[in-house]
From TrEMBL:
<dbReference type="GO" id="GO:0003723">
    <property type="term" value="F:RNA binding"/>
</dbReference>
<feature type="domain" description="CRM">
    <location>
        <begin position="246"/>
        <end position="342"/>
    </location>
</feature>
<keyword id="KW-0687">Ribonucleoprotein</keyword>
<dbReference type="GO" id="GO:0000373">
    <property type="term" value="P:Group II intron splicing"/>
</dbReference>
<feature type="domain" description="CRM">
    <location>
        <begin position="126"/>
        <end position="224"/>
    </location>
</feature>
<feature type="compositionally biased region" description="Basic residues">
    <location>
        <begin position="1"/>
        <end position="18"/>
    </location>
</feature>
<feature type="compositionally biased region" description="Polar residues">
    <location>
        <begin position="51"/>
        <end position="61"/>
    </location>
</feature>
<protein>
    <submittedName>
        <fullName>RNA-binding CRS1 / YhbY (CRM) domain-containing protein</fullName>
    </submittedName>
</protein>
<feature type="region of interest" description="Disordered">
    <location>
        <begin position="1"/>
        <end position="61"/>
    </location>
</feature>
<dbReference type="InterPro" id="IPR001890">
    <property type="entry name" value="RNA-binding_CRM"/>
</dbReference>
<keyword id="KW-0809">Transit peptide</keyword>
<feature type="compositionally biased region" description="Low complexity">
    <location>
        <begin position="36"/>
        <end position="48"/>
    </location>
</feature>
<keyword id="KW-0694">RNA-binding</keyword>
<dbReference type="InterPro" id="IPR035920">
    <property type="entry name" value="YhbY-like_sf"/>
</dbReference>
<keyword id="KW-0508">mRNA splicing</keyword>
<keyword id="KW-0507">mRNA processing</keyword>
<dbReference type="Pfam" id="PF01985">
    <property type="entry name" value="CRS1_YhbY"/>
</dbReference>
Length: 343
């Protein structure tokens, strides 16, 4: 009887506990009731003011044709084909008022060279004294300088000009470290850096440059440099290595290639190295030898081709073979040695 009464009390309390609403349901997340998801309310957004550059092409007053790379392209060598149609501009659709031709975006109007040079001299201002140059060199020439731009195998690229002006907002000079194929012709790099940026190189040591912005440089009125949104595909140029070298027969060309491959290498080039003295070494070696081999192992075939093109124009010489990352060059005949390079 007592057991029956205790079971009824236990059943009553248990039923009451389950039926009653627990007092901790608001504080304990696992026991909170699931609420139905609320429908998002439609809010009227005010229209944002339109950017004038979205409807109108960007106008830039830079007085030169826009290219991906200025130092690594030769305007005298015309491409024989394109990997993409010229309608795909690297600046994006409707972002610039210059038409992309597949290699460049040329200036529409004729450039007044006199006015451009006058404005450049005004911005550069009076020349720096020796003490001022030494102060800037000591400030920016070290490897831990925060105002540094690395120049790689692309050379002086279009977007690099914008990077230079961004550094010039807070610094009088920018340190440029050059590596790879462009270092074969440092004079060309210096020319395009000064020509495209409007600055002046005040320090040059092998592959390290300091580019000064000028006394009268105004960061608020800096030139507008439209950025390339992607790297355009390079066009197709004529074949560099011919089956039969100019001035030789087929058998003579074959004999020259075999002699070059079996000769010791003149120099071993490393990837992203400094090649500032390679041209002089090749010229000196050609005084005693007719065929030379350059060991470009670990450099890459694309860089091998660029190196061969540079040597052809700078030495000058005739590349007759690149195989297994080895470049074989021939000094050519006397008429070729004195022939002027491309414009």
């Amino acid at each position: 009887m007592l057991k029956h009464i205790s079971r009824q009390r236990h059943h009553f309390h248990h039923h009451k506990f389950l039926s009653s609403k627990p007092h901790f349901e608001d504080n304990d997340p696992p026991f909170t009731p699931l609420s139905k998801p609320q429908k998002p309310t439609k809010t009227l957004q005010k229209p944002h003011p339109q950017n004038p550059q979205e409807n109108h092409p960007l106008t830039s007053t830079l007085p030169f044709d826009f290219q991906y790379s200025y130092s690594e392209t030769n305007p005298c060598v015309k491409p024989i084909g394109y990997r993409e149609t010229p309608k795909f501009s690297p600046f994006g659709p409707g972002r610039i008022d210059r038409k992309w031709t597949g290699t460049v975006a040329p200036v529409r109007e004729t450039v007044d060279v006199g006015k451009v040079e006058e404005e450049r001299l005004r911005v550069v201002g009076e020349g720096l004294s020796e003490d001022e140059v030494e102060e800037l060199v000591e400030k920016y020439r070290h490897s831990d300088c925060s105002r540094q731009i690395n120049l790689g195998k692309g050379g002086v690229t279009h977007n690099m000009i914008d990077d230079i002006h961004n550094h010039w907002k807070k610094a009088e000079a920018v340190r440029i470290k050059c590596l790879g194929v462009p270092t074969l012709d440092m004079d060309n790099i210096c020319y395009h850096l000064e020509d495209k940026s409007g600055g002046k190189i005040i320090y040059r040591h092998i592959n390290i440059l300091l580019l000064y912005r000028g006394r009268n440089y105004d960061p608020k009125n800096r030139p507008v440099v439209p950025l390339m949104l992607w790297k355009p595909y390079p066009p197709i140029y004529p074949k560099l290595i011919k089956n039969v070298a100019d001035g030789l027969t087929f058998e003579e060309t074959k004999e020259m290639r075999n002699r070059g491959l079996n000769s010791p290498p003149l120099i071993k080039l490393t990837r992203n190295g400094v090649y500032a003295n390679v041209v002089e070494k090749v010229r000196e070696a050609f005084e005693a030898q007719e065929v030379l081999r350059l060991d470009c192992a670990h450099v890459g075939m694309s860089d091998c081709k660029r190196i061969a093109v540079k040597l052809r124009d700078l030495v000058p010489c005739v590349p007759i073979l690149y195989k297994d990352e080895q470049i074989v060059i021939w000094r050519g005949k006397k008429t070729m040695e004195t022939a002027p390079g491309p414009c």
